[in-house]
Amino acid sequence: MDQTYPASVVFTIVAGICLVIVGALGFIPNPFIGVAAPYVAGYILSAGHLAAGVILLVVGKRFPRYSALVLILAGIIWILIVTLLAPATGSLTGWLRLAGGAILFLMGLMFSRKPNR
Known about the structure:
Strand content: under 5%
Number of helices: 4
Order of helices and strands: HEEHHH
Strand order of the largest sheet: 1-2
Oligomer: single chain
Helix content: 55-70%
Distance between the termini: 16 Å
Radius of gyration: 15 Å
Structural class: mainly alpha
Number of domains: 1
Shape: globular
Number of strands: 2
């Protein structure tokens, strides 16, 4: 039977919490995240952050075996959405989104490797 590293579960939960916080801040007026803030996010994008965060939290808590796979898929989907639907790569917002997708993808790859014995 395949064994999933506990670190993948922890990272999935932490990433989910971060996305839920970022998504919630998009609905609350604040100087960091919003329509007129340095990190531009509208209501649809904030709802997307909330949904992605909830999915990662559910996978981390209920389906820990699939946490590395979900991180890889989330990273791929995140990068595709950023490059195809919101190509704002010249701004801080675009670069942060690309970095977030890359981190999810790379951490999923790292956690999916089997240990050397």
